[in-house]
Amino acid sequence: MLKIERELIKYNSIDTGKNVEHHILIANIENKRILLSFPNLFIYNNASSSVATSNRYSSVISKYYKFLSTQEKFKNVGVDKYHVLADNRDIKRWQVSRQIERVKSQSAKPSSESIYNDAKSLLVFFSWLKDAGYPTCTEVKKRDWVANFKSDDLLNYVKREAKVKIDFKNVTVLDKESRQKRTHTLISNQEITWLRESFSDPVYDAMFMLCIGTAMRPIDLCKFPYIGSGSNAHIMPYSDMDQSEKTFDFDVINSKGGKSRKIIINAKDLERLESDYINKYYYERKKLYEAKCGQDCPAHILFLNKFGRPVTPTMVASRGNHAKVNAMENFPKFREGTTFYSARDWWPTMFLIRFFKKELLSESTDALYLAVAEVIRNQMGHEDISTTYKHYIDMARLIVIAHEGRVNELATETYDPVSFIENYQELLD
Questions:
Q1: Torsion angle, alpha carbons of 410, 412, 418, 421, to 10
Q2: Which CATH number is correct for 189-342, 1.10.443, 1.20.59, 1.10.3470, 1.10.1420?
Q3: Residues 253, 230: contact at Cβ < 8 Å?
Q4: SS3 77
Q5: Cα–Cα dist 143/69, whole Å
Q6: What angle, rounded to 10 degrees, do the helices at 112-131 and 37-47 form?
Q7: Sequence-distant (≥ 6) Cβ neighbours of residue 39 within 8 angstroms
Q8: pTM, rounded to two decimals
Q9: Which of 147, 196, 245, 285 could disulfide-link to 95, CB 3.0 to 4.6 Å?
Q10: Tell me: the pLDDT tens digits for 256-266?
Q11: How many other β-carbons are positioned within 10 Å of the β-carbon of residue 275?
Q12: What are the residue boundaries of the structural domains of the chain, listed by start?
């Protein structure tokens, strides 16, 4: 099988004049390292503003190219020509081969959903190739690249090729096992407490709580300033801000996909941020930064780890996962699907409860309230307004039903870590 390395590089782009950071793919063939030009050009053009996106695309393309190298069709084809000869059937065969390997190992991963989403990411790559004028046999508009894993014929083929034992568990069961690990209800109050206790550095606890109160992504949290500038010049430690205001606007600059938006921050979240992190840790860590870097810590940097290094989204992901593992080891009831990112669901769910109150249980809220959906979409940074609205309406209904005694809390896990649910009845009065 073809060996492909993924490397993360950072440099100043000659096209934009800005610093960019993204992955590149390098094939190892007969002791030679060959840059995969077309995949690397695609990653540069589509993911140089997000390391996470570049990580996803480079990983998917790498796996696909490795699969192609095992196929007879590509036996005497140079890796630099893979994008030209690969077609829709090759993508479909790749999906099926991944299912076969998964069934062989009796694993819940990758799920059928993950396999499908990876194939969609490939189509983005081939769509870019076609739009850029490069030759390829993959037709993006065709639908024959999708492997129907609900088909009895295909399931039987997967089972036969996997050569599993009598205790075979079919694809549907494996997918259910995978879905059971994903949290579709809110992170519970107890889980929040456990996760907060499991962070190795209090800076991640502070960021986690700010995520709960604002629904900001890790990339946005890392850019939240000690003292803001421009349209965010009013952002500073809470004790220096206007105490008469209950909420503050904050412009999220260059978020996911390079997009910006205006969100709402509750004054209580800023007050908690100051008392729990800024007063306790920031100033000492600022000194560590200055000693290490030989210059003052810029005002646009707030979150510093215990070594005085600015926190990055990659660090949030790594430390968040580490905290989850610790929580699962120390607290058996902590769900595997609960992560740092689970905090993002709190804000939109509570907003809907505040807005609709008991009307949430009526059918009138099934219709799309554009103004309400727009607020949620803007706060979350989502594109699909109808899907976003429906998802959080359903989640909010679970909370309302649970607190009226009609759903077991154990099944819905709906307690609010910042005292919202404790004051639930007052909100409905």
A1: -90
A2: 1.10.443
A3: no
A4: coil
A5: 24
A6: 100
A7: 25, 58, 61, 65, 83, 125
A8: 0.57
A9: 147
A10: 767 788 998 98
A11: 13
A12: 38-180, 189-342, 345-428
